[in-house]
TrEMBL record:
One of its GO terms (molecular function) is isopentenyl phosphate kinase activity. It comes from Haloarcula hispanica. Keywords: ATP-binding, Isoprene biosynthesis, Kinase, Nucleotide-binding, Transferase. Gene3D superfamilies: Acetylglutamate kinase-like (3.40.1160.10). NCBIfam families: IPPK_Arch. This is Isopentenyl phosphate kinase. Catalyzes the phosphorylation of isopentenyl phosphate (IP) to isopentenyl diphosphate (IPP). Functions in an alternate mevalonate (MVA) pathway leading to IPP, a key precursor for the biosynthesis of isoprenoid compounds such as archaeal membrane lipids.
Amino acid sequence: MTAVLKLGGSVITEKDEPETVDTAALSAAASAIAESAVGEDIVVVHGGGSFGHHHAADYGVSTTAGTHDVDGVQAIHGAMCRLNAAVVDELTGQGVPAVPIHPFSAATRDADSDLSLPTAQVTTLLDEGFVPVLHGDLVAHAGAGATVLSGDELVVELAPAVDADRVGVCSTVPGVLDEDGTVIDRIETFEAVASALGGSDATDVSGGMAGKVRALLALSAPAVVFGPDALPAFLAGESPGTTIAGDDDDW
Ligand SMILES: Nc1ncnc2c1ncn2[C@@H]1O[C@H](COP(=O)(O)OP(=O)(O)OP(=O)(O)O)[C@@H](O)[C@H]1O
Ligand SMILES: C=C(C)CCOP(=O)(O)O
Protein backbone atom coordinates (compact mmCIF):
# COMPACT_ATOMS: atom_id res chain seq x y z
CA MET A 1 0.00 0.00 0.00
CA THR A 2 1.60 3.24 -1.17
CA ALA A 3 0.14 6.68 -0.56
CA VAL A 4 0.87 10.09 -2.01
CA LEU A 5 -0.16 12.84 0.38
CA LYS A 6 -0.15 16.57 -0.29
CA LEU A 7 -0.10 18.83 2.73
CA GLY A 8 -1.56 22.13 1.57
CA GLY A 9 0.62 25.15 2.09
CA SER A 10 -2.45 26.81 3.54
CA VAL A 11 -2.55 24.08 6.21
CA ILE A 12 1.08 24.12 7.36
CA THR A 13 1.74 27.87 7.10
CA GLU A 14 0.06 31.02 8.26
CA LYS A 15 -0.95 31.83 4.73
CA ASP A 16 -1.33 35.60 5.27
CA GLU A 17 1.93 36.06 7.24
CA PRO A 18 4.97 35.93 4.93
CA GLU A 19 7.24 32.94 5.58
CA THR A 20 5.52 31.81 8.76
CA VAL A 21 5.06 28.13 9.61
CA ASP A 22 1.88 27.13 11.46
CA THR A 23 3.86 25.07 13.93
CA ALA A 24 0.83 23.49 15.63
CA ALA A 25 -0.69 22.40 12.32
CA LEU A 26 2.61 21.08 10.97
CA SER A 27 3.27 19.18 14.18
CA ALA A 28 -0.23 17.63 14.11
CA ALA A 29 0.21 16.56 10.47
CA ALA A 30 3.65 15.07 11.17
CA SER A 31 2.29 13.20 14.16
CA ALA A 32 -0.59 11.76 12.10
CA ILE A 33 1.95 10.49 9.55
CA ALA A 34 4.28 9.16 12.27
CA GLU A 35 1.45 7.22 13.91
CA SER A 36 -0.19 5.92 10.75
CA ALA A 37 -0.14 2.34 9.50
CA VAL A 38 1.09 3.44 6.02
CA GLY A 39 4.43 3.58 7.79
CA GLU A 40 7.18 4.35 5.35
CA ASP A 41 5.20 3.74 2.16
CA ILE A 42 4.28 7.35 1.71
CA VAL A 43 5.47 10.19 -0.49
CA VAL A 44 4.75 13.62 0.96
CA VAL A 45 4.32 16.75 -1.16
CA HIS A 46 3.72 20.15 0.35
CA GLY A 47 2.48 23.38 -1.12
CA GLY A 48 3.70 26.94 -0.94
CA GLY A 49 1.47 28.72 1.55
CA SER A 50 3.06 31.95 2.77
CA PHE A 51 6.53 30.85 1.61
CA GLY A 52 6.14 30.44 -2.15
CA HIS A 53 3.05 32.35 -3.14
CA HIS A 54 3.94 35.81 -1.82
CA HIS A 55 7.30 35.82 -3.56
CA ALA A 56 5.81 34.39 -6.75
CA ALA A 57 3.13 37.10 -6.76
CA ASP A 58 5.79 39.79 -6.12
CA TYR A 59 7.75 38.68 -9.16
CA GLY A 60 4.68 38.08 -11.34
CA VAL A 61 5.39 34.37 -11.67
CA SER A 62 2.67 31.72 -11.98
CA THR A 63 2.31 28.27 -13.52
CA THR A 64 2.07 29.98 -16.92
CA ALA A 65 3.90 33.33 -16.51
CA GLY A 66 7.64 32.82 -16.16
CA THR A 67 10.58 34.90 -15.07
CA HIS A 68 14.21 35.27 -16.16
CA ASP A 69 15.02 37.33 -13.05
CA VAL A 70 17.58 35.45 -10.99
CA ASP A 71 16.57 37.36 -7.85
CA GLY A 72 13.02 36.15 -8.33
CA VAL A 73 14.20 32.57 -8.78
CA GLN A 74 16.27 32.80 -5.62
CA ALA A 75 13.42 34.38 -3.62
CA ILE A 76 10.79 31.83 -4.65
CA HIS A 77 12.91 28.68 -4.71
CA GLY A 78 14.82 29.73 -1.58
CA ALA A 79 11.59 30.25 0.37
CA MET A 80 10.26 26.85 -0.71
CA CYS A 81 13.51 25.19 0.36
CA ARG A 82 13.20 26.86 3.80
CA LEU A 83 9.64 25.54 4.18
CA ASN A 84 10.75 22.10 2.98
CA ALA A 85 13.50 22.06 5.60
CA ALA A 86 10.94 22.90 8.29
CA VAL A 87 8.66 20.06 7.12
CA VAL A 88 11.49 17.52 6.92
CA ASP A 89 12.78 18.60 10.35
CA GLU A 90 9.36 18.19 11.94
CA LEU A 91 8.84 14.76 10.35
CA THR A 92 12.29 13.45 11.30
CA GLY A 93 11.84 14.89 14.80
CA GLN A 94 8.77 12.67 15.12
CA GLY A 95 10.62 9.60 13.89
CA VAL A 96 9.59 9.63 10.21
CA PRO A 97 12.58 8.90 7.89
CA ALA A 98 11.86 11.96 5.75
CA VAL A 99 14.29 13.22 3.09
CA PRO A 100 14.03 16.34 0.91
CA ILE A 101 13.66 16.37 -2.88
CA HIS A 102 13.70 19.73 -4.69
CA PRO A 103 11.81 19.57 -7.99
CA PHE A 104 13.55 22.69 -9.43
CA SER A 105 16.74 20.61 -9.63
CA ALA A 106 15.14 17.99 -11.85
CA ALA A 107 11.88 18.93 -13.59
CA THR A 108 11.33 20.76 -16.90
CA ARG A 109 8.49 22.11 -18.97
CA ASP A 110 8.96 22.11 -22.74
CA ALA A 111 7.83 24.87 -25.11
CA ASP A 112 4.32 23.34 -25.12
CA SER A 113 4.32 23.53 -21.28
CA ASP A 114 4.39 19.76 -21.00
CA LEU A 115 5.93 18.78 -17.68
CA SER A 116 8.63 16.19 -17.33
CA LEU A 117 9.55 15.04 -13.83
CA PRO A 118 12.21 12.36 -13.31
CA THR A 119 10.98 10.06 -10.53
CA ALA A 120 13.65 7.36 -10.21
CA GLN A 121 15.11 9.05 -7.14
CA VAL A 122 11.65 9.12 -5.53
CA THR A 123 10.93 5.43 -6.19
CA THR A 124 14.44 4.37 -5.16
CA LEU A 125 14.32 6.34 -1.91
CA LEU A 126 10.87 4.87 -1.21
CA ASP A 127 12.18 1.34 -1.85
CA GLU A 128 15.10 2.06 0.48
CA GLY A 129 12.76 2.93 3.34
CA PHE A 130 12.83 6.72 3.17
CA VAL A 131 9.85 9.06 3.02
CA PRO A 132 10.54 11.48 0.14
CA VAL A 133 9.26 15.00 0.77
CA LEU A 134 8.78 17.12 -2.38
CA HIS A 135 7.36 20.59 -2.63
CA GLY A 136 5.73 23.09 -4.96
CA ASP A 137 8.65 24.88 -6.57
CA LEU A 138 9.85 26.59 -9.72
CA VAL A 139 10.53 24.62 -12.88
CA ALA A 140 12.78 25.36 -15.86
CA HIS A 141 10.38 26.25 -18.68
CA ALA A 142 11.51 26.40 -22.31
CA GLY A 143 10.78 29.85 -23.71
CA ALA A 144 9.46 31.23 -20.40
CA GLY A 145 12.41 31.09 -17.99
CA ALA A 146 11.13 29.59 -14.76
CA THR A 147 7.46 29.05 -13.92
CA VAL A 148 5.71 27.78 -10.80
CA LEU A 149 5.30 24.03 -10.44
CA SER A 150 2.44 23.40 -8.04
CA GLY A 151 2.34 20.62 -5.49
CA ASP A 152 -0.91 19.50 -7.08
CA GLU A 153 0.90 18.92 -10.39
CA LEU A 154 3.55 16.94 -8.52
CA VAL A 155 0.88 14.72 -6.99
CA VAL A 156 -0.48 13.95 -10.46
CA GLU A 157 3.01 13.04 -11.74
CA LEU A 158 4.03 11.05 -8.68
CA ALA A 159 0.92 8.93 -8.13
CA PRO A 160 1.36 6.73 -11.22
CA ALA A 161 5.17 6.80 -10.91
CA VAL A 162 5.07 5.22 -7.43
CA ASP A 163 2.02 3.11 -8.27
CA ALA A 164 0.05 4.80 -5.51
CA ASP A 165 -3.02 3.08 -4.13
CA ARG A 166 -4.15 6.19 -2.32
CA VAL A 167 -3.88 9.89 -3.14
CA GLY A 168 -4.82 12.48 -0.55
CA VAL A 169 -4.86 16.25 -0.66
CA CYS A 170 -5.13 17.86 2.75
CA SER A 171 -6.28 21.48 2.53
CA THR A 172 -7.85 23.94 4.98
CA VAL A 173 -11.38 23.13 3.86
CA PRO A 174 -13.16 19.83 4.75
CA GLY A 175 -13.51 19.03 1.03
CA VAL A 176 -14.65 20.69 -2.17
CA LEU A 177 -17.69 22.77 -1.28
CA ASP A 178 -20.80 23.35 -3.39
CA GLU A 179 -22.45 26.76 -3.74
CA ASP A 180 -24.25 26.25 -0.41
CA GLY A 181 -21.00 25.43 1.39
CA THR A 182 -21.76 21.71 1.68
CA VAL A 183 -18.96 19.20 1.04
CA ILE A 184 -19.42 17.55 -2.36
CA ASP A 185 -19.12 13.80 -1.94
CA ARG A 186 -17.78 12.90 -5.39
CA ILE A 187 -16.64 14.84 -8.47
CA GLU A 188 -16.30 13.15 -11.86
CA THR A 189 -16.18 16.11 -14.26
CA PHE A 190 -14.96 19.69 -13.93
CA GLU A 191 -18.07 21.05 -15.64
CA ALA A 192 -20.37 19.59 -12.98
CA VAL A 193 -18.76 21.69 -10.25
CA ALA A 194 -17.15 24.59 -12.15
CA SER A 195 -19.61 27.20 -10.90
CA ALA A 196 -18.78 26.42 -7.25
CA LEU A 197 -15.03 26.44 -7.72
CA GLY A 198 -13.02 29.54 -6.95
CA GLY A 199 -9.38 30.35 -6.50
CA SER A 200 -7.95 30.66 -3.02
CA ASP A 201 -8.83 32.94 -0.08
CA ALA A 202 -5.13 33.71 0.25
CA THR A 203 -2.38 34.74 -2.19
CA ASP A 204 -2.14 31.73 -4.51
CA VAL A 205 -0.54 31.71 -7.94
CA SER A 206 -1.44 28.15 -8.85
CA GLY A 207 -5.20 28.18 -9.13
CA GLY A 208 -6.63 27.45 -5.66
CA MET A 209 -9.37 24.83 -5.52
CA ALA A 210 -10.26 25.06 -9.21
CA GLY A 211 -6.64 24.25 -10.16
CA LYS A 212 -6.60 21.42 -7.65
CA VAL A 213 -9.76 19.77 -9.00
CA ARG A 214 -8.56 20.11 -12.61
CA ALA A 215 -5.20 18.54 -11.72
CA LEU A 216 -6.72 15.66 -9.72
CA LEU A 217 -9.27 14.82 -12.43
CA ALA A 218 -6.27 13.90 -14.59
CA LEU A 219 -5.71 10.83 -12.40
CA SER A 220 -7.64 7.64 -13.09
CA ALA A 221 -7.35 6.47 -9.49
CA PRO A 222 -9.57 8.47 -7.16
CA ALA A 223 -8.02 11.24 -5.09
CA VAL A 224 -9.55 12.61 -1.91
CA VAL A 225 -9.61 16.21 -0.75
CA PHE A 226 -10.13 16.68 2.98
CA GLY A 227 -9.34 19.00 5.89
CA PRO A 228 -6.61 18.67 8.53
CA ASP A 229 -8.92 17.01 11.08
CA ALA A 230 -9.49 14.13 8.65
CA LEU A 231 -5.80 13.38 7.99
CA PRO A 232 -5.67 10.44 10.46
CA ALA A 233 -8.82 9.00 8.82
CA PHE A 234 -7.25 9.23 5.34
CA LEU A 235 -4.07 7.60 6.59
CA ALA A 236 -6.17 4.83 8.17
CA GLY A 237 -7.63 3.98 4.75
CA GLU A 238 -10.86 5.99 4.81
CA SER A 239 -11.99 8.45 2.14
CA PRO A 240 -13.08 11.56 4.03
CA GLY A 241 -14.17 14.79 2.30
CA THR A 242 -14.52 14.82 -1.48
CA THR A 243 -13.51 11.99 -3.80
CA ILE A 244 -12.31 13.22 -7.20
CA ALA A 245 -12.56 10.46 -9.77
CA GLY A 246 -11.57 11.32 -13.33
CA ASP A 247 -10.74 8.83 -16.03
CA ASP A 248 -7.24 9.09 -17.43
CA ASP A 249 -6.33 6.17 -19.65
CA ASP A 250 -2.63 6.54 -18.82
CA TRP A 251 -3.00 5.27 -15.26
N1 LIG B 1 -15.67 25.27 -4.00
C1 LIG B 1 -14.67 25.36 -3.14
N2 LIG B 1 -14.51 24.44 -2.17
C2 LIG B 1 -13.48 24.49 -1.28
N3 LIG B 1 -12.52 25.47 -1.31
C3 LIG B 1 -12.62 26.41 -2.27
C4 LIG B 1 -13.67 26.40 -3.22
N4 LIG B 1 -13.48 27.45 -4.05
C5 LIG B 1 -12.39 28.09 -3.63
N5 LIG B 1 -11.86 27.49 -2.56
C6 LIG B 1 -10.64 27.95 -1.89
O1 LIG B 1 -9.59 27.01 -2.17
C7 LIG B 1 -8.72 27.01 -1.05
C8 LIG B 1 -7.84 25.77 -1.12
O2 LIG B 1 -6.91 25.95 -2.16
P1 LIG B 1 -5.43 26.44 -1.83
O3 LIG B 1 -4.65 26.34 -3.11
O4 LIG B 1 -5.44 27.75 -1.13
O5 LIG B 1 -5.03 25.35 -0.78
P2 LIG B 1 -3.75 24.52 -0.45
O6 LIG B 1 -3.42 23.57 -1.53
O7 LIG B 1 -4.07 23.95 0.88
O8 LIG B 1 -2.60 25.58 -0.31
P3 LIG B 1 -1.28 25.75 -1.22
O9 LIG B 1 -1.75 26.09 -2.63
O10 LIG B 1 -0.53 26.86 -0.58
O11 LIG B 1 -0.59 24.44 -1.17
C9 LIG B 1 -9.66 27.08 0.12
O12 LIG B 1 -9.03 27.59 1.26
C10 LIG B 1 -10.73 28.03 -0.38
O13 LIG B 1 -10.37 29.34 -0.06
C1 LIG C 1 4.37 29.12 -5.19
C2 LIG C 1 5.13 28.07 -5.27
C3 LIG C 1 6.53 28.24 -5.61
C4 LIG C 1 4.67 26.67 -5.03
C5 LIG C 1 3.19 26.44 -5.28
O1 LIG C 1 2.78 25.15 -4.87
P1 LIG C 1 1.27 24.93 -4.42
O2 LIG C 1 1.03 25.69 -3.18
O3 LIG C 1 1.14 23.45 -4.24
O4 LIG C 1 0.38 25.40 -5.54
